[in-house]
Structures are given as structure tokens and as C-alpha cells.
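Human:
Take a look at this sequence-structure pair and walk me through the C-alpha cells.
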Amino acid sequence: MAHGRFRFERFQLDTGDRLLTRDDAPVELNARYLDALTLLVREDGRLVSKDRFLEEVWRGVPVTDEALTQCIRTIRRQLGDDAARPRFIETVPKHGYRFIAPVTHLEPDAPRLAPGDRPAAGISPHDRWRPFLRLGVAGMAGGGVAGVFGGLFYGVIGAAQPQPSGMGALSIILVLVCLTTIIGLLGGAGVGFGIATASVIPGRTALWSTVGGAVGGMFVGAVVKLVGVDAFSLLFGQTPGEITGAAEGALLGGAIGFGVWLGRRAGGPSSPGYSTAVAGLAGGAAGALIPLLGGRLMGGSLEQLARGFPNSRLGIDRMGALFGESSFGPVSQVITAGLEGALFGACVAGALRLARRRPGG
């Protein structure tokens, strides 16, 4: 097997020195079990069959199924893994095993060269940062999906109200879907790349995932508010008032980052529905809290825009009737913000989950 260094959670595997460490402390594994772990880590999420273990680890030596089972059991014990809730090695019944923890391929140390030798090619920056980029793009895609559904929801509500002649229901829906999709893509990118940052920081914890999501959400929220307020001021000579911004983005992004970590920690990588649901609940709780703290998400921002521009054809006041209010009042804002946060959190977490399931994710 070619040499290389790999990091996953608090462990580092150096195949050149044939050494596994946890927080720089050596972890004991015999030579054959270390080869088996190396094979799993190198495949980075792809299935490793029993035949491959026999060919590349035991090198054709006849062994029983119990020998492979004992090998995987020992590796799990040394990694602190649990077969019922795996964080590192997942069993695929009757087929083999796969390594499911995010792996960072570290650039190998420069070898000593003899005179006249050429240096070997190192690991490209693209290979080192591919998992980070994949998670960030996945978060952006998840946010975009949430934006589409949110736009359809508010678009249908707006289209159901009487409109001036010439303003079709389809036009209202398309405009709102485009608006919410763009905001969803930006928000998903911020939160996704923020959470992905935890995958390249040694000793990833709930803190890094939460802080990463919060910082990403805060940055995108600040940019969206700044550009939106300036655009309205430039085009119409007045601002729409308090729309969603940095504070809302930070709270929602941080909650989703924590939910993503908690879902993977509690439910395990083999429970995608559980981890997505936990992130959705965390996002929903944060979304419902935002109006109570005086902030706004999309529904509240649309209501604020309609109020700031009396001649606007945008109106969602009738939505309040669904929640026992005569207008889009506090109860409506809390419920819709909670639904927005839950949808956004679940879509981002689900997309991150899919990205991690792909080889190299």
C-alpha cells in the first residue's frame, strides 16, 4: 500500500511509519489489523468486501469469517466505536464494511532525496480541500431546496389574495420563489461552509460546528440585509425597515450547526433520518425564537416590506387567519418562522448527510 497520512476526528494514521495515534498518543494495533484499518480509511466511504480484506490484508492466506470479525471488533474497540451506533466503521451485512467518518488526507512529509532524484508529487490542494468544498456546496444546495419550498408556500398564499388586473398568480409565485431560492442558496452556503470548517479543524466538537454555522449564517445575513436595504434606498428612496439580518442568521446558523453535530453524535451515521430531524428541530426552535427576540425571518420580512410600501401588491395578512389572527401578527410570525427554520435546517442537514455518504465526502 502506498504511504500517506490521514486524520479522522482525534486520530491520525501514518501508513509510512505504520502508526495510529489519538491526540498524539500511540494506539496499539498489530500489523495485520493496522493494514485492515488502512484499507478502510483509504477507501473513504466506499464498501470494502470480505474478498478484498483476504486479498490485500491476509494476502490469500485462508482464514475464517471469525478472523475478519475479530479484526473489525478490535479496531472498533481501539477507536472507541460502537457497532450499534457506528461513528467510524459501518457493517454492510453479507457484503463487508465501510469507513464512514470524514477523512482528511494530510500532505505527506517531504522525503529525503538522493542526488539526482526527483521529488514525488504531493497531495494537491484540490484533494485536501475536496471534502470541505463538497460539504459547503451541499449546504448551499440544501438551502436552495428550502428556498424553493418556502417561496412556493408564500407565493401560493400571496396569489390567493385579490390582485390588480395584469398581475397574475403565476407571476407572484415565480417572483417569490426566485427571491427565496436566492436567499436560501446564500444562507445554505454560509451555514454549510461554516459547518464544513469543523471537518478540517483537529478535535472537532459541538463548539466548532455551532460556531461555524453561526459565523456563516451571520455573514450571509449581514450581506443580504446590507444589499437589500441599500437596493431599496437607491431604487425607491426609502428603506423597508428591519428585515432579517446578521443576528437572525447567526442564531439560526448556530442552532443548525449544533443540530447537525448532535444528530450525528446521538443517531450515528447510519441514522440519516434521525440526524436530519434533529437539525430540523434545532432550526425550528431557533426560528420560533427569533420573532420573540424582535427579529424576522422571511415571512416577517415580507410583511415588513408590504407595510413599508403601501402600494405594494405583496400581501400576506390573510395568513394570520390560519392562526386565529386578523393580520400577520405575533403568533403568525412565530409559527411561520419556526416552520422556516425547521425546513431550512432539515434541508441543509439532509444535503450534508448525502455529501458525507458519497465516496470522499
